[in-house]
């Protein structure tokens, strides 16, 4: 035994170098800082393919594979891990595989290729992590099931794709299933198995992927003939033809691969795992884990392998932190600025990483990872008698939804316990099952602590200093003993709990309760037993009448909450406690006597089970031949080529801002931000920060050239996209929490951020904050901006006043309210500013949608001409509008720093900073009065709109214009009066977001349509259908509608979605289920295309043809994942008559195409495409003489000849949208170039005891004209739908109503849809036989229009809720704000539990509010 008196540095041998393998190669380096994360370490050494998306293990973009030798079992363990949490020191003796180790863009690994060719990468920032999750799965399981594939992605997020193509690509590796036909396929084509494609080529193209044992893969409707999978024959053919078919097609010239017409949707090869392509585990690492330590200037890292070593180290360092996966401590370091210089890695301590079985239960090692714990539990449950494993099943139930695989792979049982989180998933189980902890220390010896006594307060436990948790005892259950665990969160998978619980009872032979423990998390400051309720239960017979009284005891005596209780959601948390109890009663009753549970109650005993995701895409395949020819070239317009950067993105080669190699003398900027929301700045003292080693300087408003305090309100410190109404650096007063006051510039990010926290800011004159729209109404706090449209009888000129207001026989008034939405692009705001040595030139690398605005404002702030500033954009890791204007302040601030210090300066916001300062989708409120006839025909609408603009105007007036112009949706309303105002509040300025106010206006429209239907007692679909616009009718902004196929689109969707049959099935389902309800809704959308500011509807392009025939194009649009550059290359290649392989697009920069508009409003393909076409047409016209030469010249020969004839081979292109002339003052002229139409049908299932829901199916039909690239457009439609679904059902930013502090500032508490939140059955169709004469190649914009269709899920949920309310006799209209979170769903369902849950004390403002 080791002596406790021996200092720990003498216990463990010190290692001078960290040694491991990275991507198959040995690696050695000086030991890193114990707190340095693996991602920082990897990127510091040039491996930038691994991306930092959140820093808290919530998005998966940083996923790598960590392999280690398991000497106990003699095998290699492969684990996906979050590199943003894993510590660099922990890779000692292990093999790290990053995205760079798999393959390259020219030689990709099969997993990389599968994602790229399935269109599973759009912006690409999340892609490396997604590929690494898939790769790790294939290393552990050579034959993964379809379910394994989906589960592997539980810890990954994507904001662009809608997930379906990623799943589809990954499913190519799943265990094959026999070919089958699916009768529900829209095209009625057979669907093939995952590893073989059905084929054929005709005018219709449908793809169905169904990894559910039914079917999986692709099918094409083709002259009534479908070719099935060819297990032995089709390996050689890119589109899956048999050998005989290939021979015939090649002979007669119809081989689509040979003639270049093959659609990428056809080219879905079977994916086979090839172990020879994988990196083998290095034999040198197959060693027994050793004890060692690392020293570093900032601390020490200990790696003991025995319990005695661990205890001795902790005895000498009581404040040291024990880590296994660093999944909790890492978040404390990043988000709370905690400092833990001494780390002790206990992951290889043998005594605490194993288990011991006894007669009474299992002693499970405290260091066992959660993944191992899952495996062990499954083994125990399979081997022990069922009645003994109730407690184990409860543990397993909650582990199933515990974080994602990356966390479960490394997080330990003890780590979860001692963190003492009030919402821990496991602790309520351990408390309820009478688990016992064994702890020990050098001085105190060994002791046991019942888990019921372990938690003593918020984040406080009964552990003494230096004590180590050795194991936890999980007792077997007896006959008559029943245990059940519950968890409710915002999102089902990879989410923290709102409330969790475990309930256990032991009954005698007469079903009288002998022992009971009702454990809860999320109802108080720490996990504990509902003591009074548990006591009351003992002695009672297990009968129905126990539930109500017992539930009231839990929420009125054991856990008393009021309106201001931390965590908020008070009524919901209280009702969840009641619901869990009701479920537990039914569970036990069913165990005692199955007949006790009525058939309609059975659904309460199970969760909503999702099927495996599948999708269908149906569209006309309209590949355009060359003009005047039947020849079709590679990548022709109309072809579904993949995103041109897809292979670079899946291999980690794609470069984003923070991947750019460091410049000489480059520095990093840390933000100094306001801690107050409405206060005066008395002083700013950076002296302590400036004294730190590595700090170059502090930068504030005084460092802006030409800044003076006397002219502060009008000088260069004032910026803003429309009005110069916000300060770049706050000087006199701050207006929201997080506002930028200054920067600290240092030699490294770590030093810069630490120093920024040391800047002392003193505030005075602190005033009450205005946070919500309702706060602004009460305080009359508005910007002096109003947008109004009056039509029909409300029009002062009485134009088109042909339907009198009196024609309305009914009217209703109501309020529609919707929350904000966070952009959650995976790459946060980032810029790098490089000052040049001459002429005050400056170069900006920015993740921005608006390079020209960035250029203009940097020039303004620095007082230099715009021609000295060049802004460059290669790509963005997502934008969605959030990088249109809110990217500018960071670039400007860094430019000031670079100008002052004469060094390049870089900054990439942390996820918390980004969410706190960069703004969100505008919250909206609409107060309406609507008049209508007995039939439901709308006569008039009066609506007042208010958006929450935040502290400055930003783009809020333009957002309001879009809402005002879209509040009619697809409905003809002869008389309208619409008013829009902007609330001025103490929150970050809200800004552009995909749809730009359109979705909010459309949501208000659907709310009043629903109100009409429920008032009249009619189907809402009936009200929608009879009010649809017809060809030639005028909108309320007096634009006649051309080419309106809305009625046809609606009717086709009714048929293709089988709406009427399914609607009846929903009614039948609801009649048979008390606690499970379904709803179905069908809803249209109309979206106007053009900037409402007319001058923005212009674009430029520049095309160079070089003497070797290669072509370089550039244009004013930016690439953020939407595939704009890919479409522009297709347009250029088509115009020049060459294959796309000859065309290159490098980047967007203001030095090549000036005065560009933002890449926004969904019109970038329209505008830039026409500009590119204009430039190419000029060149093509110059080449006409050479095209007539006989024999015909090759492209290269033509170019050579033209060059020697001194013909210009470079051209600029320009385009402006014609006919736009709208005048807001007169309500006259053309506002939009055209409209994109669509409709969606969504079906959902709801658990009316928890508010959980699943979207079972979504059918979308879009009129998008003739698609330039169907695969990219499908990706936009699916991605927009899922983003809109998130906005309408899941995502809700929350703020502290007293301070304005944004509470939801990371993936831990702000949830976007994940892989298993998308519609189970996801179907997309294009309306056939339509063309758009007002856009490039007869196409239509598709980026924003589909987003609102995601709200069809909201209205389907509303239908399900109506059915639930009817059970309680609650009929008629009810107000339901969006998003339809699980909280809103449950509280809207009604019933006595809801009434009881809402009955709590009001003692102040709630803990959190939506803005």
Low-confidence stretches: 1-6, 177-236, 238-254, 257-269
- What's the main sheet like? 8 strands, mixed
Strand order of the largest sheet: 25-29-23-36-33-34-35-44
The number of helices is 37
How confident is the prediction overall: mean pLDDT?
A: 92
Which class of secondary structure composition applies to the elements?
Answer: alpha+beta
Number of strands: 48
Identify the overall geometry.
Answer: globular
Q: Helical proportion?
A: 25-40%
What fraction strand? 15-25%
Instruction: Give the distance, in angstroms, between the N- and C-terminal Cα atoms.
Output: 60 Å
Rg (C-alpha, Å) = 32 Å
Oligomer type: single chain
Description:
- The protein is α+β, with helices and mostly antiparallel strands.
- Helices cover 26% and strands 21% of the residues.
- The protein contains 37 helices and 48 strands.
- Strands 25-29-23-36-33-34-35-44 form an 8-stranded mixed sheet.
- A hairpin with a 4-residue loop joins strand 3 and strand 4.
- It is globular.
- 61% of the residues are buried.
- Residues 1-6, 177-236, 238-254 and 257-269 have low confidence and may be disordered.
